[in-house]
Structure formats: structure tokens, C-alpha cells
Amino acid sequence: MDGYDERLSSGALKLHQLEQELPPDEAVRVRREYISRLTGKPLEAVGRYSIGISQVVRRNCENMIGAVQVPVGVAGPLQVNGEYASGRFFLPLATTEGALVASVNRGCSAITKAGGAEVRVLRDGMTRAPVFAARSVGHAKEIADWVRDHGKEIADAAEKTTSHGKFLGSACYVTGTNVYVRLEFDTKDAMGMNMVTIASAKAADLIEEATGARLVALSGNMCTDKKPAAINTILGRGRSVVAGIHLTRALIEEVFKTNPEAVLEVNERKNLVGSARAGSLGFNAHAANIIAAMFIACGQDPAHVVEGACCITTADPSGDGIYVAVTLPDLPVGTVGGGTGVDTQRECLGLLGVAGGGDPPGSHARKFAEIIACGVLAGELSLIGAQAAHHLARAHQSLGRG
Fold first, then answer.
1. Catalytic residue flag (residue 205)
2. Residue 396 catalytic?
3. Catalytic pick from 156, 208, 301, 347?
4. Is the peptide bond before 228 cis (omega within 30 degrees of 0)?
5. Which domains does the chain have, with CATH numbers?
6. Backbone angles phi, psi at 73, to 5 degrees
């Protein structure tokens, strides 16, 4: 350990300071070996990784000791007919859940045979909602009125912090002497949480100075970030996307071994009524499965899966078959920043043709959102079909899953 063990044990050197004295790979090795000796637990597998970590230790992970590898499978080809994504795609899915990739693959097959999923981005805006304390309810109303009437000044203050973000507007919510100002920004190809936080801080300074409001917290939880929230399912957050497909009776019978009536009933009684009875904010079969697998593979923040999972799956009779759609009002995704620069994650984004910034700016993130929505649609079709045909347990048993 070249003397580092003694210095770390005595507290003369902190674990997080190793990168100040050593190259990144050496710092990670020393830290890992120290923790392994201290705990008596081997960390050899964690220490084997293929990603370059110079950027990772600066931007993505503190006190790094290695990497946890998640198997990545592909489902597809999936035909996507969107405004930003058009063509056939193989979806990278990082998961340890057996049967998931196979299930999504079956849904992709049905969609592609049907001519492709139609998909559209409905709106695009990342939010941050600082909370201010007012002196009285009258003062709270004055604050809200000022924010409503001074959008240009707020935009000017916020946009000085970024060359990419664009202020879209704000809405105020008063609860007693609490004033929540939900600020919304176009963040182009970035997921944008850091961008809007910095911009919102400047906007909050202006609001304080102009109104006498007292900023309590830069996030007042009406953003709402990394939590399931009705406000996000109603107003939208991140990329709001909807994808749908018409499936004929013959195709449903061929691929899913069931019929349109059974699929309609499962969706109504399970996804809609069952979810309502449970008080769920997600009215779907397993949207989180696909979102999580694609998020992990493509360098997204896994905590945002809780927002993306607030998905509504609908099914309508249509001609000789059914039209199934998924609506994802709250899908925070980006193709620049965060974990998108990690080597393996960047490769997965490249597989979809969305790595880095798009031309025009924002087009890659919207293309990525359209692909994810179609992947969710594929997953929903497959699981609903399996349950309609009573094949769910059989499928897991055949793949050796307990």
C-alpha cells in the first residue's frame, strides 16, 4: 500500500483525498484494497472494469472502489415511427431479471410486424420549484402576482446562468404563507436537473429581492423530482411522450396466443381498475421494468425511474383488433451530461444513434424519449398478452426463474 494504509487508518489522509495524490486508477485500487482489508471482504470482481474513470471520479462517483457490472441484453428490432426517431432499433436493456429481455423482444416483434409504433413527444420541460415564506396570506398573494407579471425579468436572470437552457414559464401555488414557484425550462439534450437548479437559484434571488419573500429551500418538492407525484402526471415533467400501435386479431393470436377481448379485459381490470383501487399513480403492467433497464444501460439517473413509471396504458377496440397506447407524462432523460459520458453507457446511446448533442439541439433527447416510449409499449403488450393467455408463470418457469 506504499504507506497509504497507515495514513488512511490514522486519518492523516481521507479516502476522498486519494485522487489528489494518485492517478485515478491507482486511487481507486488503493481505496478498494484498503476497504477490503478493513472489512475482511474480497472485492476482486468489483475491481475489474472496462470503463475509463478519469471523468467518472470527477463527475459521477465519489470514493470510487470499482464498478458493478449489470448484464445487457438487446430486444428488437423495433420499428419506431416518430417525429425524431424513425427506423428499426435494437434496445439495450441492463437487467438481472430473467425473462425481461425475452418479454420485451416479443413485444418488439409484434410492433414491427404491425408496421411500427406511432410515437410523439407532447411537451418538453424540466422543472424546479423553490419554496418561499411569506409574512401573511396577503403577502403570499403579492408574491404570486409579481411572479406572474414579471416573466421576462425572471427569464433574463435565469438564462444568464446557461448557454443552453431556455426559460419556458412559471406557476405559483400558495399554501398558507408558503409560496411554491414551479419554474420550467427547455434543457435541450440534457436531462437538465443541474442546469435548472442553478438557473432557479438566480431566479429565486430576484424574487426575494423584488417581493420581500424569504427563500426557504431551492426545491420545495413541487418540482417534483425523484418522487411519484400527481402534479407531474397532470402537467408533465421532462419529456412527455405517447406511443401507440394497432394490432389485428390475427397478429394477437399469432404472437400472444390470445385474443383482443382478453387483452382489453386484462388492461381494464388490471392496469386501470386495479391500479385505481390500489391508489397507484402508475396505471400500467410493468413500465418501470423497461425504463429502469434502458436508464441503467444508457447512463440515465436510475432514481428518475420512479417518475417514468407513472405511465398510463390504454387499450381501445379498433376495427378487427385493438389500439394499445402508453402515455408517459414524466420521463426525465438526456443524451449529454450525467452518466451519458461513461464509456459503456455512451456505447449504448450510440447503438440508438443518440449519443451526445443533437442537431438541432434537443433532437437527440427527444429521439431517445420516443424510443424508450416504444420500448415501454413493447413491454406492456408482451406482459398483458402473457397474462391474458395465462402464460406468465409458465414463461418464467421455462426460463428457469424462481
1. no
2. yes
3. 301
4. no
5. 14-69 (1.10.3270), 72-124+237-398 (3.90.770.10), 130-217 (3.30.70.420)
6. -110, 170
